[in-house]
Amino acid sequence: xxxxxxxxxxxxxxxxxxxxxxxxxxxxxxxxxxxxxxxxxxxxxxxxxxxxxxxxxxxxxxxxxxxxxxxxxxxxxxxxxxxxxxxxxxxxxxxxxxxxxxxxxxxxxxxxxxxxxxxxxxxxxxxxxxxxxxxxxxxxxxxxxxxxxxxxxxxxxxxxxxxxxxxxxxxxxxxxxxxxxxxxxxxxxxxxxxxxxxxxxxxxxxxxxxxxxxxxxxxxxxxxxxxxxxxxxxxxxxxxxxxxxxxxxxxxxxxxxxxxxxxxxxxxxxxxxxxxxxxxxxxxxxxx
Length: 288
Ligand code: XBP
Ligand code: MG
What we know:
This protein has a six-stranded parallel sheet, sandwiched between helices. It is built from eleven helices and six strands. The chain has two domains: 159 residues, 3-Layer(aba) Sandwich (Rossmann fold), CATH 3.40.50.1000; 82 residues, Orthogonal Bundle (DNA polymerase, domain 1), CATH 1.10.150.240. The C terminus is likely disordered. The protein is 42% helix and 9% strand. The protein is α/β, with parallel strands linked by helices. Strand 2, helix 6 and strand 3 form a beta-alpha-beta unit. Xylulose-1,5-bisphosphate (XBP) binds next to helix 1 and helix 8.
């Protein structure tokens, strides 16, 4: 059997189930630390994941709240606030990572060990911030296992843009036809496919039910019903070769959509809420 020359793994939702009980909690703690009257519940955060990148996610949510409240969003004010909140969130989440609070999804370590035993090179491509993603990847896979790592800080355009995958392949010196991507989400799949990689999607609670047309393989778990293996990924590379003519067309793939339901549910309940004026930003009244 022949294994792929390289496998490029996404991090959030793929190597580890980070979003619901990790990032979301850190965002909420950061909002509170900055006196921002916003709380992202589990369901609402699931919608917000359509926006990749934590800082962009904060801006998108705060702008939507302003618009739902009948106000035009001041992008500059929101950007400045989002930068501060996101910096705090990054520090809080990095602390959690360093505490060892986040483990791998079941079957991830076994798959990576199988790949390495067959000579496959390992890389990661994430839109997440290096400050927490680097120690997390080292904790999950072991120091030095990921030969190449591309973080959100390294690119100018986040997923679903293919830049992170293209950079990972360029650093590996591997042709996309010889590599496989492993992703958990629709934006991630779009990014990997636009970069020309056969892509395995292993869904999680948040991404189950998203559209995954173009995935070479779709699973719910790494280890069930049978462990995902290096041989299976090698077969995908060979099988996917015929469809590469359509890669150029997929380069135009764009964001699958912004946050759903902008003015109902929690959005409407909180439409009157405002973030309290904090350091350097005086805007609106404090929360009701
Ligand atoms: C992950 C992201 C990230 C994380 C939060 O997407 O979009 O923004 O949710 O991390 P993917 P940061 O799995 O497709 O890479 O706050 O550091 O952005
Ligand atoms: Mg992901």
